[in-house]
Every structure is written in C-alpha cells, then in structure tokens.
Amino acid sequence: MKRSERLVAMTHYFLENPKTLSSLPYFVEEYDAAKSSISEDIDIIDDMFQKMGIGELRTVAGAAGGVQYIPDLSIERAHTTVEKLIDLLEDPSRILPGGYVYMSDLLGHPKYVHEIGQVFASAFEHTEIDYVVTVATKGIPLAYAIAQVIGVPVVIIRRDPKVTEGSTVSINYVSGSSRKIQTMVLAKRSIEEGSNVFIVDDFMKAGGTIQGMKSLMREFNANVKGIGVLAEAEDEEEDRKVQDYISLIKFMEVDETKETIKVEKGNFFSS
Known about the structure:
Layout: H1 3-16, H2 24-31, H3 35-52, E1 55-60, E2 66-71, H4 75-89, E3 95-96, E4 100-101, H5 104-107, H6 110-123, E5 131-135, H7 140-150, E6 154-157, E7 168-174, E8 181-187, E9 196-204, H8 208-219, E10 223-233, E11 246-255, E12 260-265
Parallel strand pairs: 5-6, 5-9, 9-10, 10-11
Antiparallel strand pairs: 1-2, 3-4, 7-8, 11-12
Helix pairs in contact: 1-3, 4-6, 6-7
C-alpha cells in the first residue's frame, strides 16, 4: 500500500472511531507497514487535523498505550456554523402562528445537524461522557449527531412507556411552556448506574423539560456532566429553572406583526 493510500485509510479509521485507543501494532499489521512509517503517518494526520480545526491525535505511552482521535472544533469553525444557522433562522417565512419558529428542516438536514453536533462535542472534548441523553422527539437528531462525534450511545427518554423496553422508571415534572404536570419514562436497562451523561434538547424556554431530565438521571445515580440546547428563548430567562447549560443560538425577538426574527449567538461563545 502506498503512503498516500495508507493516509486515506488511517484518516477514515480515526474519524470513524473517535476516542478509541488503538495500538501501533494494530496499524502495522493492518497496513503491512513498518512501525516507523506508521508513526510518521500519525504525525502527518495529526498535523492536518489540527490545521483543519477538527481535533487531534493523542498518543498514550506504555504497554497498554496507543493513539486515539480526540474530536474538537476550532472556535472559528464554530462561529461559522452558528452564523450560518442565524442567517437561516432569521428568515421571516419561518414565523408560525403563536410566535413559534419553524426549525424542523434544519433538524432534519444531515449536514446542519452534523455541524451542530461537532460544536457541542467540542465543548466536552476533555470530559468523560458515557451517554448522550435527550427526550423524544425533536432532540433525537441532535443527540445522535453529538454521539457519533464522540463515539457513545444515545439514550432517548419517552413521554409514555413502551412494552418493548421492559420495566421502566418514571417521574413527573412541570413543563416550562404549558406549566402542566407531565411524565417522562426511561427503561431501567438504558443507563448503567454511576454513568456520566450529556443532556441535549433542541429548544429551551423556562427549562422545565431539562430539569425533568436531570431529576430522572438522579434516579439512575447518573452524573450530568453537561447540558446543551440548540436554541433558547431570551424572554424566559428570569423564570428559567436551569442555569448550568450551553446554548448555540438565542431568539431575542419573534414579531408576528412586523414579521421579523432576531437571533443572536448563545452563551457557548461567552462561556
């Protein structure tokens, strides 16, 4: 195998296996190359990853060591991604009756969702995460995008139990938008006790749903290491139940009469 071919193959391997520790002998055997050549290849790929602002290759010394790809995203690329989202979301045609904003097309587009997942994952590159947790339904694409980048499973909290999930744990919580008592449910075998989780949701007003997810995680003795929301509503800040979170965008104003939407960058860029 030529070096150019080997570099492509190894780059693909690292991108497909984030945070997986792989030994140098594995690459030596897989690509039938000398250890010194593999080491040089790793240096080349690491240098390119850092120049592109998408992460780094980290070497772990020792008999049980090896090399692993640590996903990251440069702040410049994060700014570009969010600025693009703001341009799309400020389109007046997205205004729905009641002052809501149509976002389903973005949450259903693989390119945008993947870029959003990269931004969120970069905020927790040095944090040990075992699961990405969300509540059905609109947060699911975001959860899978983040989980793919950092290489962990997704856990989906339901509004009602499913017979296919076996025994469950349920809690009641106060919805931030409707102020009504609602229920969320999670199968007992979904999360191992003592796990580290990252909670994600597509939109936050008062934060009742996220507070409910945090309460449910306590039932599993899980450690909430981070909370991420794609968008938050500026006018709900005073009544917000959740404070320790990061957001990518903030809706400052949605005016049905004037047909205007004002969106700013979230606290991700100020934290």
